[in-house]
Amino acid sequence: MKMTFRWYGEGNDKITLDQIKQIPGVEGVVWSLHDMPAGSLWSPERVAEVEKQAQEYGFHIDVVESVNVHEDIKLGLDTRDQYIENYKQTLRVLAKFGVKVVCYNFMPVFDWTRTNLYKKMPDGSNALFFEKSKINEIDPIELIETISKNTDVTMPGWEPERLANLKQTFKQYEGFTAEDLWKNLQYFLEQIIPVAEECNIKMAIHPDDPAFPIFGLPRIIINKENIGRFLKLVDRPHNGLTVCTGSLGSIDNDIPAIIESYHDRIHFMHIRNVKRFENGDFIESSHRACDGSVDIVEVVKTLHKYDYQGYVRPDHGRHIWGEEKWARPGYGLYDRALGIMYINGLWDTLNHKS
Ligand SMILES: [Mn+2]
């Protein structure tokens, strides 16, 4: 297991590399060029800047999260080929810098979605919360306005330029089915995976968050069965997975069983916990197994059983010790650092021969 930490980049993340360096066991930063719109070509000069910054602290830049997939690719429009071409070219650029894993997702329009970014918990912390009944009532455009008013930082997947033409994008998705999305995903993979193989970059799709359709838009990377179908679309090792325990944990998935079945195709793990409620709501909790609905101990044990050599990062954390005043929602410093220590503690215990 190789421990990493997501970093939004110089000037874009209030958390510094100096702080990340002091979290035990972190070997690399998970990064992206967050200002590059989906479908654009990344330049070597920009990647070199990140590499230089990371190297000063001895961090590798092996994992990119994400190289976003342009909406036209998901929609299967004629214009998709130029964006796929840019995607391939970007992979070739990344390969020159030794990038090993590219995380991406294939969710129509919306990336991860919550109804409240700062839900107060009884202990005084607050966390990302999803209220199912609210999502059924709320107009998506209203939701975006609420989220962007709530925070002065741009969140990945919620970039203003992507969301500016939301009404038009919704129109394009009228009548669009899950099968259409599967077909367009297959088209994308058939183009991309051979280039990924040539570059030795492992593609690692992130599951949909939450793992069910919202606003009438299909979501397909949601459970064990669908992940099995995904892996067969292009049945090659470079077509692999990011297993995000929090996203898959938004519904009653048996995540250790998913790891059992597909461990040889997992290139990246996002480990975090969520607490589900009977009415379908969920809130992000501490990493501890007893604090949420996902058995994180069993997750880590299963990875250990298969001698998992891939990358891991703690995923979203709660906002604690007042950090909601400055931290990007879900991406504060403290709870993610605590999460790392929990994961490291489990891993060290499993490694310990007594
Ligand atoms: Mn995740």
- Overall 3D shape: globular
- SSE pattern, N- to C-terminal: EHEHEHHEEEHHHHHEHEHHEEEHEH
What structural class results from the helix and strand content? alpha/beta
Distance between the termini: 21 Å
What percent of residues adopt helix (DSSP H or I)? 25-40%
Mean pLDDT: 92
The count of domains is 1
Low-pLDDT windows of residues = none
Q: Could you tell me the radius of gyration in angstroms?
A: 19 Å
CATH top level class name: Alpha Beta
User: Mind describing the biggest β-sheet?
Assistant: 8 strands, parallel, barrel
Keywords: Iron, Lyase, Manganese
InterPro entries: Man_deHydtase, Xyl_isomerase-like_sf
Family: Belongs to the mannonate dehydratase family.
Pathway: Carbohydrate metabolism; pentose and glucuronate interconversion
How do the strands and helices of this protein lay out in sequence?
Blueprint: E1 2-6, H1 17-21, E2 28-31, H2 44-55, E3 60-65, H3 71-75, H4 80-96, E4 101-104, E5 116-120, E6 126-130, H5 132-137, H6 140-150, H7 160-163, H8 166-172, H9 178-199, E7 202-205, H10 224-233, E8 239-244, H11 245-248, H12 255-262, E9 266-271, E10 273-276, E11 282-285, H13 296-305, E12 311-314, H14 334-351
This protein binds manganese (II) ion.
Manganese (II) ion (MN) binds next to helix 11.
Describe the structure.
The protein is α/β, with parallel strands linked by helices and 354 residues long. Helix content is 39%, strand content 16%. The chain has one domain (2-351): Alpha-Beta Barrel (TIM Barrel). It is built from 14 helices and twelve strands. Strands 1-2-3-4-7-8-9-12 form an eight-stranded parallel barrel. A four-stranded antiparallel beta sheet has the order 5-6-11-10. Strand 5 and strand 6 form a beta hairpin. Helix 13 packs across helix 14 (334-351). The two termini are 21 Å apart. The structure holds manganese (II) ion (MN). Manganese (II) ion (MN) is lined by residues 206, 244, 246-247, 270, 315.
